[in-house]
Amino acid sequence: MPAVSSQAGGETPRDAALGGSRKNPTVALLPGDGIGPEVTGAAREVLAAVLEPVRFETALVGGRAIDETGSALPDETLSLCRRADAILLGAVGGPKWSDPSAPVRPEQGLLRLRRELELFANLRPVPLFSALGDLTPLRSDLIGGVDLLIVRELTGGLYFGRRREQEESEDGLSAFDTMEYSVTEVERVAHVAFRAARERRGKVSSVDKANVLASMRLWRRTVTRIGEQYPDVELEHVLVDACAMHLITRPAAFDVILAGNLFGDILSDEASVLAGSLGLLPSASLGTGSLGLYEPVHGSAPDIAGSGKANPIGAILSAAMLLRHSLGRDDLAQRVEQAVARALERGVRTPDLGGAGSTAAMSEAVLAALDESG
Ligand code: NAD
Ligand code: IPM
Ligand code: MN
């Protein structure tokens, strides 16, 4: 997997920071809302099983943080995250805090955390487990050979552009958001995608809407220019609407998908269908240092929260990414990934995977498989 750098080639700040594995790491644990505490509980056990010693410090984020402090990202949480070696987060949000007129929303806490820590590159691999081959709705001839990584820009675009919640206009009340990208913002995430492709199958599919949007024409021009520094990587540009279709009609043709903040968000939930469930997808949010934020791609799943049915695999695989990208322990990351594969081969399944197993049963199966490999 790639080190994150704003330059092609050479040693990067991240490589230098990692320089080897970290001793006595501190992991900031931000369980959040809904199924967040359930799935991070499982991921924490897995981390503790492979990494000795490791220190967890738990803090509030999201809706529970609003309830207890009035803020979706309390200062203590942010300062804990800054001094930690890595952050493991569950999910934020839920119906209790979803009133569109509420002055503060859980999601703001997560967005601010990403932005404050400058975690501009969000890696979202789509894990295909052979034991789950029957779960995808796609025909086997379409799903064969699928192996893709979405690199989503995470601190710019429509999520962070100028906006107004309420404005009086000639037509009455209106509101707006703006999609803005600077050349620098596109360059740095494009480097991440090209470097990742170099270590994979050598192809980047850059997603945009350059036929309509000015910000996306800047995106396309910039990605094209950065691509010239990677002559060994094939670059294609795909319009986002067509990309949504190609993900279903020719998913195996993709290697690295590079997308802006909004498009990457939408396409990654779509891509989860290839794997079989949204509950399987992990993510790593990285900047130029070794500090990273690791969270499953899914949300707080209010419809199943508290029922013990949540699939913990997205969170467990996020912990594996934490081991790889922030702690320099690719060996342990691979052990965790193999343990997940073995647990699935043994037939343990949460309801989203078509079974009746609980979160606890799934995580115990992963822990048992880890034990055997230890
Ligand atoms: P969601 O991802 O929470 O759930 C979508 C569907 O997938 C639901 O049916 C849910 O039960 C299922 N699902 C999700 N994760 C699962 C898991 N681990 N195991 C089994 N099934 C799982 O999306 P939503 O319902 O649209 O959003 C709920 C809340 O979560 C919203 O407030 C949203 O803002 C928030 N959210 C947070 C994050 C995050 O914190 N990173 C991500 C996405 C959504
Ligand atoms: C995600 C989520 C978040 C996003 C929300 C909760 C702010 O959907 O991480 O995919 O849109 O980035
Ligand atoms: Mn999302």
Question: Can you put this structure into words, describing what you see?
Answer:
The longest helix has 16 residues. The protein has two domains: 215 residues, Isopropylmalate Dehydrogenase; 140 residues, Isopropylmalate Dehydrogenase. The N terminus is likely disordered. The strands form two sheets. The chain has a ten-stranded mixed β-sheet, sandwiched between helices. Strands 6-7 form a two-stranded antiparallel sheet. It has 374 residues and is of the alpha/beta class. The structure holds nicotinamide-adenine-dinucleotide, 3-isopropylmalic acid and manganese (II) ion. The site of manganese (II) ion (MN) has 2 residues, from helix 10.
Distance N terminus to C terminus? 23 Å
Helix run count: 13
CATH architecture of the largest domain: 3-Layer(aba) Sandwich
Bound small-molecule species: nicotinamide-adenine-dinucleotide, 3-isopropylmalic acid, manganese (II) ion
Give, in order, the helices and strands.
Answer: HEHEHHEHEHEEEHEHEHEHEEHHH
How many whole angstroms does the radius of gyration measure?
20 Å
In the sheet with the most strands, the strands line up as 2-1-3-12-11-4-5-10-8-9
Oligomeric organization of the protein chains: single chain
Protein structure class: alpha/beta
Shape: globular
Range of strand content: 15-25%
Helicity level, as a percent range? 40-55%
Estimate the mean pLDDT confidence: 94
Q: What is the CATH domain class of the largest domain?
A: Alpha Beta
CATH homologous superfamily classification of the largest domain: Isopropylmalate Dehydrogenase
> Tell me about the biggest sheet?
10 strands, mixed
Question: What is the count of β-strands?
Answer: 12
CATH topology of the largest domain: Isopropylmalate Dehydrogenase
Give unreliable regions as ranges: 1-19
Could you say how many structural domains there are in total?
2
